[in-house]
Amino acid sequence: RMGIEDTIEAVFGKIAITQRTLDIYLSRFQSAEQAVTQCERAGSDGAGNMSFRDGRIVLSETPRAEVISRLELIKNDLNWLKSREIVPAVSIQEPPAIVARFRSMEGGAFLDDLLAADGSARVFVSEDFFLRKMGFELFGVRSCWLQSLLMFLAEKKYLSYEEVVKNTCHLLSLGEVSLSANYNMIIAATRMLAKSEIDLTEFERFVSIIGQPGADYSSHTQVTASALRIINWEHGLSSVKGPASNALLSSLLRNADGLTR
């Protein structure tokens, strides 16, 4: 969905997956297909959903257009996954006996990704910190998360910082919260705002990374101060100087209760 596969493969080699990953998306596709069929048979404007939340059964309906859009999205993801190499979930070194036992239990199949990464000598890409940590401690697997990969590619000039901003906004829209932004990314986002490549709402969503709960305020304050100097100095950014500065400062300080401002 991010359009950076070719760049990643040019730098790191072919992207591979496990059969488990393919099976998960096949299951998602079948569920999405059933939802569309349900709409068609019922002649309704949406698909009904039933979930259990806070001790209660919750009934909801997803609009028909959203159901169809989701099906197409998963179908595209599935077609892309089918074009990838599937590597076996076999590690180079024999896993500890407890790992083998846990893998055979219900819910233990997630270990396949770690075994495959070790066996194929590939970098393991995952948003799950504890899974990455487990992979390193058990097998010495090298790993990273997606945004760190984007930032690395930008630092090495394989991607522009504008592309990193665009893809970080995509991650935010998917609900990712453990994201970061550096000085170069904020300046790139401000330039995109000045060129109307993103609107103020998108800019505000992007800079919401600054000052998020659990942030290192010392680091975030330094990044913000450096970015504000350029925003207020660079001639091409004069048209967005006010709203961009306000958005940055508001984001930085929104969770700073108790700090000296």
Report what the structure shows:
With 261 residues, the protein is mainly alpha-helical. It has twelve helices and six strands. Helix 7 packs antiparallel against helix 8, helix 8 (161-173) packs across helix 9 (183-194) and helix 9 packs antiparallel against helix 10 (200-207). The chain is globular. The mean pLDDT is 87.
**What series of H and E elements makes up the topology?**
HEHEEHEHHEHEHHHHHH
Largest sheet: 2 strands, parallel
Mean pLDDT, as a whole number? 87
Give the total of beta strands: 6
- Provide the helix percentage: 55-70%
* Number of separate helices: 12
Q: Give the C-alpha Rg.
A: 22 Å
Assembly annotation: single chain
Label this structure with key terms.
261 residues, mainly alpha, two-stranded parallel sheet, two-stranded antiparallel sheet, globular
Which helices and strands occur, and which strands form pairs?
Layout: H1 5-12, E1 16-17, H2 19-42, E2 46-53, E3 56-63, H3 64-82, E4 85-86, H4 97-104, H5 111-120, E5 124-125, H6 129-139, E6 143-144, H7 146-155, H8 161-173, H9 183-194, H10 200-207, H11 217-233, H12 241-253
Parallel strand pairs: 1-4, 5-6
Antiparallel strand pairs: 2-3
Helix pairs in contact: 2-3, 7-8, 8-9, 9-10, 9-11, 10-12, 11-12
